[in-house]
Amino acid sequence: MHLDLSIPALQARYRAGLTPLQFVEMLHDKMCAEDAALDRNIWIRRLSLDEIRVYALALENRDMDSLPLYGIPFAIKDNIDLAGIVTTAACAEFSYLPEVSATAVQRLIDAGAIPIGKTNLDQFATGLVGTRSPYGACKNSINPAYVSGGSSAGSAVSVALGLASFSLGTDTAGSGRVPAMFNNLIGLKPSCGRIPTTGVVPACRTLDVVSIFALTAGDAASVLACAQGLDDQDAYSRTLPPHGHDFGVAPAFKFGVPRQADLAFHGNAEGPGQFAKAIAHLQALGGTPVEIDLRPFLAVAALLYDGPWVAERYQAIRSFIESQPEALHPVTLAITEKAKNISAADTFSSLYKLKALERETRKQWLDIDCMLTPTAITPYTIEAVNANPIVLNSNLGYYTNYVNLLDLAAVAVPTGFMSDAMDSMPWGVTLVAPAGKDLPLLSLAARLHAACVLSVGATEHAPHRLPQAVPSAAAFPSGLVQVAVCG
Amino acid sequence: MHLDLSIPALQARYRAGLTPLQFVEMLHDKMCAEDAALDRNIWIRRLSLDEIRVYALALENRDMDSLPLYGIPFAIKDNIDLAGIVTTAACAEFSYLPEVSATAVQRLIDAGAIPIGKTNLDQFATGLVGTRSPYGACKNSINPAYVSGGSSAGSAVSVALGLASFSLGTDTAGSGRVPAMFNNLIGLKPSCGRIPTTGVVPACRTLDVVSIFALTAGDAASVLACAQGLDDQDAYSRTLPPHGHDFGVAPAFKFGVPRQADLAFHGNAEGPGQFAKAIAHLQALGGTPVEIDLRPFLAVAALLYDGPWVAERYQAIRSFIESQPEALHPVTLAITEKAKNISAADTFSSLYKLKALERETRKQWLDIDCMLTPTAITPYTIEAVNANPIVLNSNLGYYTNYVNLLDLAAVAVPTGFMSDAMDSMPWGVTLVAPAGKDLPLLSLAARLHAACVLSVGATEHAPHRLPQAVPSAAAFPSGLVQVAVCG
Q1: To the nearest whole number, what is the mean pLDDT of chain A?
Q2: pLDDT tops 50 at residue A464
Q3: CA A193 to CA A180: how far, in whole Å?
């Protein structure tokens, strides 16, 4: 059974008479079948049919028109709380039973969405690979020999395999974008603070973002509209500046492209051609490429890896790691323990460097509406990552690490598949812009997506379909004032 | 000779025929006389008459109307560079000879102002007392048995004694406000990033602000207008949001007053009455007091003292303090060395707490235009501070420590003198508002100042005069759009 799970398609089915209860029963059958057949290590805790039914039943007699996500199934990364289901962060010894759902999860449920399970991740969201989990390496949806990408591993794979319409991940250094590319999905990394992180196990609290994997940019926008907004309990949540001019729907726009010298593909011979194709697509949509100097961005990325932010990961689980270090995945432990030797003075020194680099990058935004980069240099096999877990993981963050430190928003967009030589793995690019410009990015992502691809997710499991345009922008005030001039 | 050094008064003299050269010769005579008579330890390096003459001569044949600070003498705290004069930060072993002036200093010179000397300070701007200097404790301008306040000690005293029209200080935790109160002056602590800190010896780079001591709020506004503005070399300099509604000139406004339980005067029996008088003055000007909860502000202040920010002071002089610890003032060394034991994880933990407290304070700003507090709890004698240097210093920051951490602007305003029982020392209050609202604060400060006092500075040395209103706001765009409705 191939259900089209995109939000408008599924809602059309509901309008035609399908009930949420009927639907979740079908979906549950499909999940059971996939589990048996595929063994991708997607779930840490899939909800039982009875547990899912509770949410479906709650929608009976509700007005579909007042619930923008009526009956839409979604998966939740297992570092985000769902009331009544254990949160593990991929560490059983750390796990706890939350009484209330994360703010973002609750807002989605309130909008009619149906949670279906808690997904596997790189332990404590530390990683971009999806292999650093005691629940097994999460396998790629397109080709199980490859990594899923991480840390939001199962969240991406579940959507790509057609088990959920969308999913929540988290994205501190690229965890919501790298898995999107590797699984042929849209990956929205919203502006920092746009979606509250209340009820999320912190990785780096100053940088953590709840991210959205979706089949289309339009679906991502619909989910964002429901999940976003200030939360008194999260001091890092914020009201963002209005997005201003919507370059995403403009007939002409300018997009930054890194200088040739700053592009890296780490031996992926098809990367340059794939990236050139994406540039050509944007040009065909009215975009003018502008060469930008990626070096200050890359210097920021280096700060993330060598700088003090790992101490946030340490601080987040400080009493746990001090009492039960043996409970951690060995790679996660090795990374996190490095934080012990970083001083406050070192920390401020890095904050100064970041501030100076941010100032350098700011000038470049004056010339462009958004920036285009590859999402990741290349997909890796699980075997390759296991052989060299730290270095290959670092490589994957080349184009993603700097984004949150610089307070940018980003959308990962699938743009096609590589050749047999690259095992027909998907390729993707990321559109990046300053905080607040989520909607223009999604609008442009929708157009680029539609121009590039005829399939979404793992094509043998999810439906072939054309992406939709981003829906009404009512939830995203532009800040532009409409002036009527009368004379 | 009592010269009225306020900017409009001195400029009137220039228009009447006085030349800058004539003026600086008179001023130099006065400085020499004060030096001999008073021995206040104001200067670390007063400029020679020849050195001052260079600046005065440079004004010959210049158009007065194009130079807003034409011929205006100013003093510079000796942690701010003046080209060609050694900067010590009150540590001779640390000193260096700058080739260029600090951005703020150069902008003032470019506007016609004349530097007259480098002033004494608490070493490395670490202190609120003015006694922590190997150049001698700076003595109060009103009563030399009392501390000048610090760390911008000599900057305040030089203006109060009528030796400069205004001076530059720095203010990280209160160093531009406490000395203003103790010397009966206006002390402007501008919004963070408004005046660049390029060419300033850092204390806490994330919090440091160049401050202005002036005879009137109008003078402070004139100096700010010349010194403010982005500087590419200072990543922390910034363009601030427009100030919006100017509550400082509005016929009605609301001002926050701390709950009785949060007020502290540490045994100063006259403090409550003095503060009540200031409240009554603001009410008479159209203000409605609104009780606010100062506890989250005070919790932020506690973070500054016990938290990681001292590591910024350590980082600022790291190689120096590691190689020549014996060169530091013993109190400064003891404070700064504590930073060694603070970790990156502790640092982030404090940043989280600050963020949460900032969120708590933000709600209170919804109800008020500005906040009124005492500037400091009470003046202390030099003898008392020497007997208990750490605790009494901390006490002085009770109402000032939280301001920069919360990204607020502040103006200290003299409001009168205490009785003989308090040695007729001056009293003062501080007006505080969110970043960007410097001009409304100065406008209100001018009105409060005019309502309260008939003298400025040390009354036996500086002229008795009425404060002026804040001049034209052209340099401070409000961000309000003027709409003409035609029908």
Answers
A1: 93
A2: no
A3: 21
CA-based nearest distance A355→chain B, Å:
6
DSSP state of A100: S
pLDDT of residue A422: 94
Annotate A64-92 with three-state secondary structure: HHHCCCCCCEEEEECCECECCECECCCCH
pLDDT digits (tens, 9 = 90+) for B149-190: 999 999 999 999 999 999 999 999 999 999 999 999 999 999
Phi, psi values for residue B479, rounded to 5° = 85, -5
Computed on alpha carbons and rounded to an integer, the radius of gyration of chain A in Å comes to 21
Edge-to-edge strand order for the sheet containing B287-292? B43-46, B114-119, B73-77, B166-170, B210-214, B186-189, B408-417, B426-434, B370-374, B253-258, B287-292
Instruction: Give exposure, B358-390, as e/b (b: 16+ Cβ within 10 Å).
Output: bbbbeebbeebbbbbbbbbbbbbbbeebeeebe
- Of chain A, the percentage scoring pLDDT greater than 70 comes to 95
pLDDT on residue A45: 97
pTM attached to this predicted model: 0.94
Which positions of A are annotated as active-site residues?
77, 151, 175
3-state secondary structure B315-342: HHCHHHHHHCHHHCCHHHHHHHHHHHHC
3-state DSSP assignment of residue A136: coil
Q: With bands split at pLDDT 50, 70 and 90, how would you rate the model's confidence at B321?
A: very high
Query: CA-to-CA distance for B460 and B37, rounded, in angstroms?
Result: 13
β-sheet bridge partners, residue B253 = B287
Spatial distance between the Cα atoms of B81 and B84, rounded to a whole number of angstroms:
9
A363 touches chain B (CB under 8 A): no
Alpha helix positions (H), A437-480 = 438-452
Peptide bond into B349 cis (omega under 30): no
Contacts of A193 (CB under 8 A, 6+ apart): A234, A236, A237, A238, A240, A435
- Facing residues of A430 across strands? A373, A412
Sheet holding A426-434, edge to edge: A43-46, A114-119, A73-77, A166-170, A210-214, A186-189, A408-417, A426-434, A370-374, A253-258, A287-292
Task: Judge whether B343 is closer than 8 Å to chain A, CB to CB.
Answer: yes
Quickly tell me which residue has 């490429």 as its tokens: A289
What per-residue confidence (pLDDT) applies to B39? 83
Q: Which of helix, strand or coil describes residue B482?
A: coil
- Between the alpha carbon of residue A407 and those of residues A374, A404, B237, the distances in Å are 19, 5, 18
What six digits make up the tokens of A21? 């209860």
Average pLDDT, chain B: 93
A480 touches chain B (CB under 8 A): no
Q: What is the DSSP string of A249-295?
A: T-SSEEEEEE-GGG---TT-TTHHHHHHHHHHHHHHTTEEEEEE--H
B355 vs A236: CB contact, 8 Å cut-off?
yes
Report yes or no: B2 at the A interface, CB cutoff 8 Å: no
Which one of A192, A205, A340, A347 makes the best mutation probe of the B interface by having the most chain B beta carbons within 10 Å? Answer: A347
pLDDT for res B46: 96
Residue B458 pLDDT grade (very low, low, confident, very high; cuts 50, 70, 90): confident
